[in-house]
Amino acid sequence: MKTIGLIGGLSWHSTIDYYRVLNETVGALEGGVSSAKILMYSVNFAEIKALTFNDDWDGISRIICDIAKKLEAAGADCLLLGANTMHKIADEVQAAIGIPLIHIAKVTAAAITQKQLRKVALLGTKYTMELGFYQEKLSAAGIETIIPADEDRVFINNAIYEEMGAGIFLPATRDRFHEIIEIMLSGGAEGIILGCTEIPILLKDTVAAVPFFDTGYIHSIAAVDYALS
After folding, report:
1. DSSP states of the chain
2. pLDDT of 90 higher than 90
């Protein structure tokens, strides 16, 4: 079994789900008391959030690349960057290490392709929705991406950073997300990408009319596939 390197804490609430899914999946596939081999580095999310709000992607890149190198040196055979937004710097991180970085948007695109969908809505931070790095991976797989209107993007972004990142999951926020999803469906979305790893926690009891793509779960499963290959 290969060792999975995980950069977590982005936020730690979803890192818990990464750890759980990685271990549960290995246990289900390998049987007995088998669990995943994981090296994890958990960051201080407050530092990363401040750099993100200042659009200091160079500063974020320096931090994350340094951590990635440490995980590789410690024996990681692949790397998971446990947040959709941080994949803005995925290419820089990959260039800094000699082990594969499993890209969350690429494996999500593969999951969408398996469902034979061609048009999906992307929900996440404003950076994930607006900067194009996610859409680029989806477009390469022949998938069209739509995003919410300006006002709804502001709401989603604020909910992620000011509520969910602090472990606050409010019923009123969940209801507003449901409304936004309905608008996306009326715009032709055949599926919904939960493109922030905290959104599945908020929407965990939602019964969906179309497929929801839980990116953290998809990311974890891809890492287990690699670790057991």
Report:
1. -PPEEEEE-TTHHHHHHHHHHHHHHHHHHH-TT----EEEEE--HHHHHHHHHTT-HHHHHHHHHHHHHHHHHHT-SEEEE--SGGGGGHHHHHHH-SS-B--HHHHHHHHHHHTT--EEEEES-HHHHHSSHHHHHHHHTT-EEE---HHHHHHHHHIIIIIGGGT---HHHHHHHHHHHHHHHHTT-SSEEE-STTHHHHTTT---SS-EEEHHHHHHHHHHHHHT-
2. yes
